[in-house]
Design brief:
- Keywords: Signal.
- This is Secreted protein.
- The chain has no helices and eleven strands.
- The protein has about 130 residues and is mainly beta.
- The strands form three sheets. The chain has a five-stranded antiparallel sheet with strand order 3-4-5-6-9, with no helix packed on it. It has a four-stranded antiparallel sheet with strand order 8-7-10-11, with no helix packed on it. A two-stranded antiparallel sheet has the order 1-2.
Length: about 130
């Protein structure tokens, strides 16, 4: 399995791939991947966490963290053609949606991405690899 970072390539067996933003550290366990983009002080820290094995995704979750109170927003998660959008979520600084059940296999190289309507700049993504 191939794990791709913004500036490096690392080989891992049996995990989901993780592109990490320079703003945050990447976390990988054998059965999951997490990718983040942005930062809490400006455009919000948006993260997507995928749990599964190889090309099969069991669940997916997204979070948004920011340093100040803001408007309500909706989260969208897309993995290939699978796409879900939350209802309106209101929180002071920490937004969370999921885990959402996916229970589906995807083609090698499919991207799993999440974004928030109240912070539309930037998507958090991971790439699914066999």
């Amino acid at each position: 399995m191939l794990v791709r970072y913004a500036a490096a390539t690392v080989l891992l067996a049996g995990a989901l791939a993780l592109p990490a933003s320079p703003a945050t550290a990447a976390e990988i366990s054998p059965m999951s991947a997490r990718g983040c983009t942005g930062n809490p002080g400006s455009n919000g820290l948006k993260c997507v966490e995928v749990k599964g094995s190889r090309l099969h995704v069991d669940t997916v979750k997204t979070t948004l963290t920011k340093n100040h109170a803001d408007d309500c927003g909706k989260a969208t998660i897309q993995i290939g053609s699978w796409k879900k959008t939350s209802g309106r979520i209101c929180a002071a600084r920490n937004f969370s949606w999921g885990p959402k059940t996916v229970n589906k296999s995807f083609r090698d190289g499919t991207k799993a991405c999440a974004w928030w309507s109240n912070y539309p700049r930037g998507k958090a993504c991971v790439t699914i690899h066999d």
